[in-house]
Amino acid sequence: MDVVHEPNRRSVPVVPGTPVEERFRLPAHRGKAGRVSDHASGLVNDVKEWAELRIELVKKEVERRIEGRLSTVKNQAIVGGLAAVTGYFALFTIAFALGALLGHPAWGFLILTVLLAVGTLVAKRKLMPGKVSVQHSKKTGKVEVRHDPEAADRPLEE
To answer: How confident is the model at residue 20 (pLDDT cuts 50, 70, 90)?
Structure first.
């Protein structure tokens, strides 16, 4: 004899031929196949919802990382700008100090300019050996800079 469990946990024996209470019956148009398809569609919906939530989570994570990097770049730009202004003031101070020692401010600026130009040329040769060519297209208005590291070994063309 089969036993039906009611929600309040009392066991009720099922007598063959006795109708089952309404709350325990399947809908008239559904059978076991219908229940399985309902469960399968529910599972598909759950997986779809999980995938959509996962995509949203990944989007939020990417946004958070981008915002973090942008914040870092912004902070570095601020510090770099302040460092550049500090460097300019330091160069002016050095130029005026040299000018005061030599009797005229122009001499200080001239000496500092020559020292900076020599430092730039030395850094260029150390950091970028080779030939740098700059070409300007009058048609398109674009400026193209090319660096040929192998040109350092070749003699200059005339």
So the answer is: confident
What would the two tokens of residue 150 be?
């192998």
User: What integer pLDDT is reported at residue 72 of this predicted model?
Assistant: 93
* pLDDT tens-digit readout, 54-101: 999 999 999 999 999 999 999 999 999 999 999 999 999 999 999 999
3-state secondary structure string across the chain:
CCEEECCCCCEEECCCCCCCCHHHCCCCCCCHHHHHHHHHHHHHHHHHHHHHHHHHHHHHHHHHHHHHHHHHHHHHHHHHHHHHHHHHHHHHHHHHHHHHHHCCHHHHHHHHHHHHHHHHHHHHHHHCCCEEEEEECCCCCCEEEEEEHHHHCCCCCC
CB atoms within 10 A of CB 150: 9
Q: Please give the Cα distance from 149 to 158 (Å, whole number).
A: 19
| Cβ–Cβ < 8 Å for 53, 59 | no
Query: What gap in Å lies between CA 39 and CA 25, rounded to an integer?
Result: 17
